[in-house]
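Page 37, continued from 36.
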């Protein structure tokens, strides 16, 4: 069983930066596709960024967010720059073993609020 734990959320002003971190327990982390999702109030959860051997970003965050991973430490991070009010959401770290169709491992979520 893999456990995923996020940290790093908070309340910031527009234009500020935040860095979210996620640590996953278990072995073979290198075989996991890791991703960050977010869910804003009243909206569906959406994929923000994904990393395995390559990276994917949602259009809304391209050029502002950067996903990275450290396989030696079982961690994945999301650097968020130039934050906007529309980035306000609960951010979730998730993982799935390569080849799986669904993300099987989820963190509890961390709140990000962007407001002036």
């Amino acid at each position: 069983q893999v456990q995923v734990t996020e940290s790093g959320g908070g309340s910031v002003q527009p234009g500020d930066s935040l860095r979210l971190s996620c640590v996953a327990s278990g072995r073979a982390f290198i075989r996991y596709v890791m991703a960050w999702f977010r869910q804003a109030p009243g909206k569906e959860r959406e994929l923000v960024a994904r990393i395995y051997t390559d990276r994917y970003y949602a259009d809304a965050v391209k050029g502002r967010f950067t996903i990275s991973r450290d396989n030696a430490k079982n961690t994945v991070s999301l650097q968020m720059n130039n934050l906007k009010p529309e980035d306000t959401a609960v951010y979730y770290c998730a993982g799935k073993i390569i080849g799986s169709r669904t993300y099987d491992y989820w963190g509890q979520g961390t709140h990000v609020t962007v407001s002036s």
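The CA atoms of residues 40 and 67 lie 20 Å apart. Flag for discussion at group meeting. The mean pLDDT is 96.
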